[in-house]
């Protein structure tokens, strides 16, 4: 079943909701349905009267749902906690969800599926969307997927004070994250937890531009077979919360025993351009004393669970350094190479962007 604007102009077909009714959790709800297409529509909501509201809310078992070329707009002046452009709410399997070429604005979150305990969802495609918002909270996310088996996230533009541009939690299939333009003021560009694809299906995180003000460009926890390659990361240190351990790549492995640690494999960080600028303290409080204190590589090098090479690093401020988090830190790139055994073919060089402050 297809719902579309026959004229091809989304502004001529508007589905709007201005009610303050507490029971309404969506402007458009898709409940236990499949083979649905929403195309070239304007979907708006001017009153977020309760938390956990999705302008488009997908509930229950479903497959083959496509939302294409739609304008999805939330309340322009305020928000309710966990308001989302597209909200996938499920505790049963779904598959083949496609969200392409949409404009999602004025919501705390963009496209999210936060069911941490349900079965794995198969095959989601998120391509060509523009997601932007003036709102921020401790968990605001542009794209969030949980319990996902295979996903393609490509050519999206994400901007605003999102705490996470992408939040990926418990992923088991091949994930492809490519050609995205991320410009946020928040915590992390990409947070990837427990992503462990099979040996012959590595996840690819490539050719993304990550810039703005944030604590970490990437944070990987308990991951295997992740290929982080050919990304440009250009950002200023920023502390949205009481934290003081910013990093380009924060690679954590929580098991303390070496047997469990050896089950992680195949992570690569190669051919990336990483440039950091120090910023003044943007917040007040005792923890923010460390603004500019920077762990370039927050990693457990002694287990050699990944390969790091062919990168270009640059920082100019006196508080930046390379670190393996719990053992060693140095301001010298040469010392980092000798100590870690990584980055044998990498170099430390100023990429000389045209502007040190304006977005690329």
Please explain how this structure is put together:
This protein has 360 residues and is mainly beta. Helix content is 3%, strand content 49%. The protein is built from 2 helices and 32 strands. The chain has helices at 258-261, 333-340; strands at residues 2-4, 14-17, 26-31, 36-39, 42-45, 54-59, 62-68, 71-73, 84-89, 94-100, 103-105, 109-113, 121-127, 130-132, 141-154, 157-160, 164-171, 175-178, 181-195, 203-206, 209-221, 226-229, 232-237, 247-252, 267-270, 273-277, 294-298, 306-309, 312-315, 320-323, 329-330, 347-348. The protein has a 32-stranded mixed β-sheet that branches. A hairpin with a 5-residue loop joins strand 30 (320-323) and strand 31. The longest helix is centred in the last third of the chain and has 8 residues, at 333-340. It is globular. Mean pLDDT is 77; it is low at 280-298.
Question: Outline of this structure?
Answer:
This protein is mainly beta.
In terms of topology, how is this protein built?
Layout: E1 2-4, E2 14-17, E3 26-31, E4 36-39, E5 42-45, E6 54-59, E7 62-68, E8 71-73, E9 84-89, E10 94-100, E11 103-105, E12 109-113, E13 121-127, E14 130-132, E15 141-154, E16 157-160, E17 164-171, E18 175-178, E19 181-195, E20 203-206, E21 209-221, E22 226-229, E23 232-237, E24 247-252, H1 258-261, E25 267-270, E26 273-277, E27 294-298, E28 306-309, E29 312-315, E30 320-323, E31 329-330, H2 333-340, E32 347-348
Parallel strand pairs: 1-4, 2-5, 3-6, 4-7, 5-8, 6-9, 7-10, 8-11, 9-12, 10-13, 11-14, 12-15, 13-15, 14-16, 15-17, 15-18, 16-19, 17-19, 18-20, 19-21, 20-22, 21-23, 21-24, 22-25, 23-26, 24-27, 25-28, 26-29, 27-30, 29-32
Antiparallel strand pairs: 30-31
